[in-house]
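Reviewers of the previous submission asked for a worked example of the structure-prediction workflow described in the proposal, so we include one complete record here. The input consisted solely of the amino acid sequence. No template or homolog information was supplied to the procedure at any stage.
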Amino acid sequence: MRDLDAYLGRLRRQLFGFPTGVRENILREIESHVLDTATEIGGGTDAAVAQVVAELQPPRVVARNHRDVYGYSFEFRALFIFLAGLLGILSLPRNPILPGSELVGPVVLAFLVVYLILVSLSAGKTVGVYSGGVAAVLRLVSFILIFAAVSGEALPFTDQILEFAGFVLASVLLILVGYLPGRGKEKWATTLEVY
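From that input alone, the workflow returned the following structure tokens.
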């Protein structure tokens, strides 16, 4: 039974981020499967349990397969979206409040793009779109508010409209960056199912 307990402990750690009820159901189902199979092949002895556990997929693979079905818990999805919004604010170019933002802003923007890709691939296109949307909106609103507070003008870059248009376009494209990887993963999965 120690083998089963160790396996379930590793699987529990891999299922971090799942809704609690779903995580407990998965663990109960796997424990039941192992005990039933061990009873069939060897009377439920520790050796039979160890044999069944040895034939199971690694906990990381089991968790990934279940994550594709059940997804992350609401709290984790909210955390992904919150972090994207925070990164959106930190990615502002020429932020008068943050010294050195001419260098920091583009680096954080690049990190935000990578983050959105990873969120979209792991949590799905819907969470990716929400994350990209929140990042874009907070990026635009905070930039306009900071610019208005510092300069007293309502619209930033009135003398450099192309630069502002590029900023808006880059912000809006974050939504697309949050959508495409998750959508591509879905299409790829359905294409593989056909064959």
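Residues 68 and 137 are 28 Å apart (CA to CA). We consider this example representative of the routine output the project will generate in years two and three.
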